[in-house]
User: Which sequence fits this backbone?
């Protein structure tokens, strides 16, 4: 039984989450090709960049000087991790993120959306990755300065136009729209399905445990806690997955369920869950 719960927890923890910062950036792209975070330095001229970009499939996020969180991976910079997180939500675009890279200062990160090449506009995406950045960097190093990074975007766009002329002989793609709803709803629905499976397994195995278990005081306490968790599980399965905090309640439920099945005392966590669903 514990193995099944651990699998459920692993699946829940593996779900993609959207940070508030990424959400704010992507929501900003609904209205403009350039998002400027409050507190961003004036080193990139946002108005000029908007004019330069036009309707090309390129979006730019200009963040504040607050250091970006580390990626947790040795070969992935903080900026590239954040860039990839954003690109996953605007997948048909090229993304540039300006931010404070820990230990390296304020600089850009570039990435290619996972659906930049698609059925409507098939292309070799690698032509718009490191090759494109290298061409642009060769030109901007003579123009950009720490006080003015705008030439980096200008040269990147010129390099894009030159490559697009080769790779798109018929029609050049335009900037892709932001999805009506970001992935939260889909994640919650997926999470709800995982939790429902966990709850179903829990019910069946819990009944079997009750049938063969001895009614010692500890077992009685465990059974009482299990009954309370069962009621919480019924709520999780029946509640609107789009409801406020529903994903977090479901995640916490699975973690508490894991603790309960391992024999831990989860009374306090159960009480907290009961309080949250009242």
Assistant:
């Amino acid at each position: 039984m514990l193995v099944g719960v651990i699998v459920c927890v692993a699946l829940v923890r593996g779900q993609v989450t959207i940070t508030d910062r990424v959400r704010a950036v992507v929501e900003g792209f609904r209205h403009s090709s350039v998002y400027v975070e409050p507190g961003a330095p004036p080193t990139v001229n946002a108005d000029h960049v908007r004019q330069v970009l036009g309707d090309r499939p390129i979006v730019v996020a200009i963040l504040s000087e607050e250091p970006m969180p580390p990626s947790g991976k040795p070969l992935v910079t903080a900026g590239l991790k954040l860039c990839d997180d954003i690109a996953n939500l605007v997948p048909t675009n090229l993304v540039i993120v300006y931010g404070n890279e820990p230990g390296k200062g304020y600089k850009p990160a570039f990435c290619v959306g996972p659906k930049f090449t698609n059925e409507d506009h098939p292309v070799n995406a690698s032509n718009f990755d490191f090759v494109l950045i290298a061409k642009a960097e060769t030109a901007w190093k003579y123009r950009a300065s720490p006080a003015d990074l705008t030439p980096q975007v200008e040269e990147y766009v010129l390099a894009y136009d030159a490559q697009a002329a080769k790779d798109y002989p018929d029609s050049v793609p335009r900037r892709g729209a932001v999805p009506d709803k970001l992935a939260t709803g889909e994640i919650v629905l997926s999470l709800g399905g995982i939790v429902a499976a966990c709850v179903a397994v829990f019910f069946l195995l819990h009944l079997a445990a009750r049938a063969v278990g001895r009614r010692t005081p500890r077992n009685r306490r465990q059974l009482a806690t299990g009954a309370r968790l069962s009621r919480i599980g019924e709520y999780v399965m029946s509640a609107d997955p789009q409801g406020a905090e529903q994903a977090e309640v479901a995640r916490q439920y699975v973690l508490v369920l894991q603790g309960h099945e391992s024999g831990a005392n989860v009374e306090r966590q159960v009480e907290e869950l009961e309080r949250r669903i009242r």
In short: Residues 1-7, 11-16, 183-191 have pLDDT under 50 and may be disordered.
